[in-house]
Every structure is written in C-alpha cells, then in structure tokens.
Design goal:
495 residues, alpha/beta, Alpha-Beta Plaits, Rossmann fold, 3-stranded antiparallel beta sheet, 18 helices
Length: 495
C-alpha cells in the first residue's frame, strides 16, 4: 500500500501533454481569439473616438485663443499696455514687462549660441595664424604712422566683411592684434603683428592668406596717400592652441542664459491669466510676426474613428495566451485520471484495457482532430470501441482463469451511463464464457454496493477517465486489500 501511495505522487506532466491539451481545444481557441480581437479592437475604437473628441475640444479652444490674439496682435506696445492697465495693477504690468525683457535677452543670447561657430567650437582645439610685418619708410616717424594706417584697416569693417564672406560666418570672435611683439604701445614700433584665430585649421590658413592679399592690395593706395614705404612679411606661423578665454566666454554665455531663464520663471510662475496673455502678446510684437501663435494654435487634423490593427492583434495574442494558460493550469492541477495514465505505473496493478469513446459524427475539420490525436499518441494505433472491448474481455477472462475464479466483481467510483453500457457489454461476453460478473459499482460511498463484496474473491476496477480521482482509486485498492479481495487489474473507460 505504501508503494501505491507513493506512486500517486509521482505522476509527471510533460510538455507534450500540455501542448496536446491546448491543441485539442483548437476550436475554442479560435473562439477565444475572436473574442480578444473584438474586445481590444472595440477598446481601440472607443479610445479613438475619445481622442477625436478631445482634439475637437482642444481645437475649439485654440481657435478661440487665436481669434483673441489676432484681434490684439496689430496693436502697439503702448496700446497693449493701456488695454491691460484696466485689468492689472501697475506692479503686475511691470512684472510682465520685466519678464519680457528677460525673454528678449535670452532669445538674443540663444540665437548667438546657436549661430556662432565660436560658441559651438572646442575651445581646447583652436587654430591661430601669426603674421609679423615690418614697415620701412624714409624715417621711423613715418614708418610708425604707416603701420598705424595698416592696423586701422585690418580692424575695419571692410576687412571683416571680406573675412565673413570667406568663412560664411561672423568674425566677431576673430582676434586681430596690431603692434609690437613686446609692447602694446602702437606708436613706438614699425612692427605690425596680426593674429587670426579660427575653429578650423584650413579656414584659418585661408583667412590668413586673404589678410596678406589685402595688405598687398592696399600698399599702392597707402603709398600714394601717406608716403612711399615698404611692408614686408618677416614672420609667419600656425599653431593649435587652447583658448581658455573662449572657454570662459562660452561658460559665461550659458550661465547668463540660465540666469535669465531663472529670473523669468520666478516672475511668470505667479502670473494671472491676463498677465500671461499680455506677456504672449509682447513676445509676438517682438518677433514682428505670429509664428509663435500660429504654431500653438494650428489645428490638429482629424480623421474618422478607427479600429487599431495593433490592438486587434494584441487582443488575439493575449486572449489565446490566457486561455492556453488556464488549460495548462487545469491539466497540471487535475487530480482525475487521464487518458494517457497507466494503472501499472501509478498503482502497480495491471491495466487490462483502454476503452475509447464511441465514434461520433464527424465534425467540421475533423481531420485536424485526427492529426492532433496521432501526434498525441505518437502515431500508435488506437483501437475503436468494439476492438478495445473485445481485447478487454479477453484480458479479464485470462486474469480470472489464471486466478482460478469463476466470479469477478466490477467496482468503480466514477461510473456514468457510458461506463455502465461498457460493463453490460463486457458482462454478456464474459457470461458467455461461463464467468459470472457482478457490478458492485461504487463501493466507497454506497453501503449496498459494499455488501456485494462479502463473497468476492477477485475484482476489476472500472474507472472513468476525467471523473475518477486518483485518491479514490487508492482508497478502493486499500479497501479491497483489507477485505482480502484479489485485484485482477483495471480498465480505463473514456467518457
């Protein structure tokens, strides 16, 4: 008995069994899949309708705001101030105008940061060209004066325009230094020192060459107006440098922008609705267009409500997975005998037969069912009900004769109408062979059936697949052992 009890706890559930459990229910799986498509597809449609309604409400609100701003956008700052002066205190108006001033300054610095090549440059990898010229004239005083003329021209708007054309960028950060190598006193030297800085080595070289060409071009003009002279390039060098001053400038610019935003935020966080409107209108006037308002009030295009294909697919997958999970859980947690159970393995008693269900009228796509069952039984032959009954009758007959019995008792706790029909057929076949069959049926829960075992010497368990519990079989075996009734074996009957 202990061994039998241990056997009931060693039943294994393999992956194939779980897979077949799911596949057998393929028809209901399709129904569940369609339910998932309908449910989540319907949810997506409802969500789409709600989104459209929200967008419509937003568009209406934005249109109202746009109309309001359009009515006021043509007014001057003075007119706007006078208009809002009726709605706000002088302090509130001043706070708005101060916030607007911060906004102006921030936008100017932001534009410079985004457009200036120097503000975007790596200050640790800048390039400098050094050009050193010497001016020779009739006397040193004249040489000093001519050197100053060249210095002024190099720092003029004309020179900067030339350089901006070459590099396609503002040269406000280019460095021009005119003077002596050792002093900043421009009036005591005939040496002209020109220094050009740029973010790119090749462009720095191109700018330096243009400066040299410019000096050559201006030589004749300056000679005619100031006096004859010679200007010679006596030194030329290029180097990659770390411009810490530029790094500081970049940091200072970003710090200024942060401070401006912080100051503006401190003012705007407590703005009333009128203050916000006044502030927005000032910003529009500053920009000289309604780009900001247009961006904010542009209607979002609407489309008809639709069902999301993605949601439909998600619904199908989620519902199928959930249903498959339930089927697998039921299979794992099932405590009733299954069609692939073997009584010999579970309880140590011979399995005398497996009676399949009666052949039913073929359903639509029944070939799929047949394919799944062949996979389930690994293509082993399955006997029909008549063949299985004949084999079971022979097995019981042999077991009875082997034990020198002439009477056999059929017991089972899960007998239904189908099981009774099988017992009637089996009883007739055995009685034809001279073996008396007594159907005791449920001996665990029926006292009258239990009394039938008073003279019993041998018994066969008739258990119904999907109804009889493993514990009930164990209890039957224990009861029969106590009554010293020989268990000849068991027969499994499919519902």
């Amino acid at each position: 008995m202990d061994n039998r009890q241990d056997m009931t706890h060693t039943r294994e559930i393999d992956l194939l069994e779980l897979l077949m459990t799911v596949l057998i229910h393929w028809r209901s799986m399709i129904v569940v899949m369609m339910c998932g498509v309908i449910v989540l597809g319907g949810m997506s449609y409802i969500k789409s309708v709600q989104n459209i309604q929200n967008i419509q409400g937003r568009n209406e609100k934005l249109q109202q705001e746009e109309q309001y701003f359009n009515e006021l956008s043509g007014k001057s700052e003075a007119e706007l101030r006078e208009l809002f002066a009726e709605k706000m205190t002088e302090e509130e108006i001043t706070n708005v105008e101060n916030a607007f001033l911060y906004e102006q300054q921030y936008n100017a610095k932001k534009h410079y940061l985004e457009t200036s090549e120097f503000m975007q440059a790596d200050s640790l990898h800048m390039y400098i060209a050094d050009l050193i010229y010497q001016v020779d004239a009739l006397d040193m005083a004249q040489a000093y004066s001519i050197r100053d003329v060249y210095a002024n021209l190099l720092n003029s708007g004309e020179m900067r325009s030339r350089l901006e054309t070459i590099c396609n960028n503002s040269v406000d950060t280019l460095l021009f230094i005119a003077g002596d190598d050792d002093t900043v006193d421009l009036h005591n030297s005939n040496v002209l020192h020109v220094q050009i800085e740029y973010v790119d080595a090749d462009m720095c070289d191109a700018l330096a060459r243009d400066v040299m060409n410019y000096i050559v071009e201006k030589h004749t003009e300056i000679s005619a107006s100031v006096g004859e002279h010679e200007i010679n390039l006596i030194g030329q060098s290029y180097a990659e440098v770390n411009d810490l001053d530029l790094l500081d400038s970049q940091k200072d610019l970003k710090t200024d922008m942060i401070n401006l935003r912080t100051s503006e935020a401190k003012l705007t966080k407590d703005f009333s609705a009128d203050q916000k409107k006044y502030f927005d209108l000032l910003c529009m006037q500053e920009q000289k267009n309604v780009e900001k308002t247009s961006d904010q009030t542009q209607n979002i295009s609407l489309s008809a409500p639709a069902i999301s294909k993605k949601y439909m697919l998600m619904g199908a997958i989620l519902f199928v997975l959930a249903y498959a999970g339930v089927l697998c859980l039921k299979c794992v947690a099932n405590n009733r005998v299954q069609i692939k159970d073997d009584l010999q393995d579970l309880f140590g008693i011979p399995q005398l037969g497996l009676i399949t269900k009666k052949e039913e009228k073929k359903r639509v796509f029944s070939f799929i069912d047949e394919l799944i069952m062949r996979m389930y039984y690994h293509n082993c032959r399955r006997f029909n009900r008549t063949e299985a009954t004949e084999l079971a009758a022979v097995a019981v007959h042999m077991a009875v004769e082997k034990n020198s019995l002439n009477t056999v008792y059929f017991v089972g706790t899960g007998m239904d109408e189908n099981t009774h029909q099988f017992c009637d057929v089996l009883q007739k076949e055995l009685q034809a062979s001279g073996i008396e069959v007594i159907v005791a049926e449920n001996i665990l829960y029926n006292a009258e059936n239990l009394k039938k075992l008073e003279k019993a010497k041998g018994a066969v368990l008739i258990e119904t697949i999907g109804k009889t519990m493993y514990t009930e079989i164990l209890q039957e075996l224990q009861l029969l052992d106590r009554q010293q009734i020989k268990v000849l074996g068991g027969i499994m009957v499919e519902e």
